[in-house]
Design a protein that fits this description.
single chain, 828 residues, alpha+beta, 19% strand, binds ligand ANZ, binds zinc ion
Length: 828
Amino acid sequence: MEKSYNPKEIEKKWQEIWNEKHIFQTPNKSEKPKYYDLVMFPYPSGTLHVGHVKNYVIGDVVARYKRMKQFNVLHPFGFDAFGLPAENAAIDKGNIHPEDWTLKNIEIIRNQIKKLGISYDWSREVITCKEDYYKWTQWIFLQLYKNGLAYKKKAPVNWCPHCKTVLANEQVVNGKCERCGTNVEIKQLEQWYFKITDYAEKLLEDLEKLPGWPENVKTMQKNWIGKSIGAEVEFKIIGTDRTLKIFTTRPDTLWGVTFMALAPESPLVEELTTSDNIGKVHEFLRKVSLEDRFKRIAEEATKEGVFTGSYAINPVNGEKIPIYVANYILYEYGTGAIMAVPAHDQRDFEFAKKYNIPIKVVITPKDDVITESNIEKAYTGEGTLINSGQFSGLNSKEAIEKITQWLERNNFGKFTIQYKLRDWLISRQRYWGAPIPIIYCEKCGVVPVDEKDLPVKLPRNVKFEPTGKSPLINHPDFEETKCPNCGGKAKREVDTMDTFVDSSWYYLRYINPKMEDKPFDKQDVNNWLPVDQYIGGVEHAILHLLYSRFITKVLKDLGFIDFEEPFQNLFTQGMIYRNGAKMSKSKGNVVSPDEMINYFGADALRTYILFMAPPEKDAEWNDSGIEGTYRFLNRIWNTYFAIKDKIRNIKFQHVDNLKNKSEKYLRRKLHQTIKKITNDIEGDFQFNTAVSSLMELLNDLNDYLNKVEEKNWNLYLLKEFSESFLLMLSPMAPHISEELWSLLGKEELITDAHWPEVDEKALEIEEITLAIQINGKLRSQITVDADLSEDQIKNKALNEEKVKKYLEGTEVKKIIYVPGKIINIVIK
Ligand code: ANZ
Ligand code: ZN
């Protein structure tokens, strides 16, 4: 009996062989062109499900394909290993250290991934919580600090009362902690920031240099950076010598200002509130402070506020304008104060209606007349200026420019660009992260740790309080230290860095993962980067990608590297759902790769993940789907067993002078498929259609084998066919491909083989022209592919336009085909 397909046995065998031969270890120097294939490294929070695996399978097809195209492929893997879940697990369980928890999970995941047969260069593994990595994360902090790009300030910050730490704006989603969903509070705290705002324009501009990124990701980054062009205008405050500075994108509406408004957090509120308004104002501030800040500024929220008692003077016309405090003004944006134009801004309109503040129309649309008495909502569109002094009659777009220039000439204001992007808050009040390498000396003040003293090590002996207070606070081996400057009594910074700092540069460390005196070698990094293909989830569209781009740009400007964008091409894969929902332990809908590998093998799992949908789309897991790809692999196996002994000793050669129709057809299908799959992979990663093309091709092969008598098989053709087929299958299902390849007598690994070439000649189709007779009379003619079958030709003839007319209302009795010449249709 023939041996049957046994994935368990062959997958283990080939993984061991690959491993022993170290074939996935990539040298930094090579004659071949480089290709850096990177997947987003995971946070090791437990075991992987098949949704995670999709990322790695896509990355592996790319890596193996590029390898076969003779690139020197860098395909590394690692772990984003610092972070809250480890610490929370330690607090919850009480008896496990975050480090042990993390390393244990890494061990589990590494084994899961190894069973998938992914072609990672494990010798380059990077784990961000290890000292030899976070030493360099701290080094990066110091470079930013020395160059004025890391600073400490007291500011209102997002505080998650559950995680007991601050969060970056990016980590707050709809007012809730991204991690745990708790409502985020605002606290005034001293925190460390990276000055990413210095790079706002560059980060925006350079998106243009990334044609290989999905448009939606670039749009998200653009919106996050949030560039607004406008003017800063100063309004004198009556009775003081102070001015109130506002930011507006609509200086063309200056003649329509009827009130001004301050953010409740603005220190000006106290200053400008007159004594008879103190009571009301304080009451309002108290009310606002209890409100959810994110609900407060939502578009649909009720606009509320109180009058401060103070007035400003509109510089354009000298009008006296009341100053309010209003809940919809953000303290952190612009100047934290606005000029309000109810006729042309909907928020101001709602506010004015509520408090009976006048509304002045200064822009009219072309085909409509808006007046104070008929206005029902703000008119925010373009139009013609009215009641605007010497600018009346101008189009609003033009007026914005002219008025801004006029403001500048009169010293009332100036052209300004504003960004929504805030500086990156990087300090976290937690233990399990890279310590911020800063020392506070009683005499010298803030002193950075000397580079030669890095890493600032996390002490291993820590106790976690149920209160969540960082165990670094008052830790005897950590917080108490000596000043590197004067040797006097000093304290260490007890905050650690946001894990997004760790992941903002890991792709550089893969280049020289073990280098001891530098984070990386400049030349090696310049050779390998930018990453040719980055693959990951769209959930990282903003945070991780923006931070990585920022750190890259900083390192470039400081002369450590020569490129300014880290990721040339980005692919965001879709998620795998099950029972209509994202896979998660709590929903109980998780599919484990281990279980699938046990049943069907890694190759069937990989092939199914690739086959289930276009990789960028979300897809629903289906148990019968993987059974289908498993059957496909079995059919391949059995087909190869039927032919392997016959072709094993045949010498490979191109069989390009085929006369026989079915041989010609089979070879044409083969080369069409090589062309198609090459395009599918090179293009948009359409692996799903690549798999289905292979399924079709296998059917064509079996049709041939069944139709043609065994003694008439063209063994040269079968040799070419079966080798090319395996080569194309191998990036997707590498184990079965290796096994069958070796059974064909090959000595080199298929993993090291060359990707098959298209023989353009095989694609040529010979055509013949046939006369069509109806009841013996010549009625038409058709041109068809010479290798169509008789039935296909007859069908074409019946569907020819002219013929169809003749046949209308009749009945075809018989069709006679004289090969290569005539089709005679006999009707009643
Ligand atoms: C007067 C005006 C008239 C405005 C008008 C708009 C329309 P973007 O595009 O988001 O940059 N604004 C300025 N600072 C603000 C703050 N801290 N909190 C809330 N709103 C603020 O929006 C800029 C516009 O938002 C500015 O232009 C200002 O209102 C308001 F017909 O000024 B505008
Ligand atoms: Zn000192």
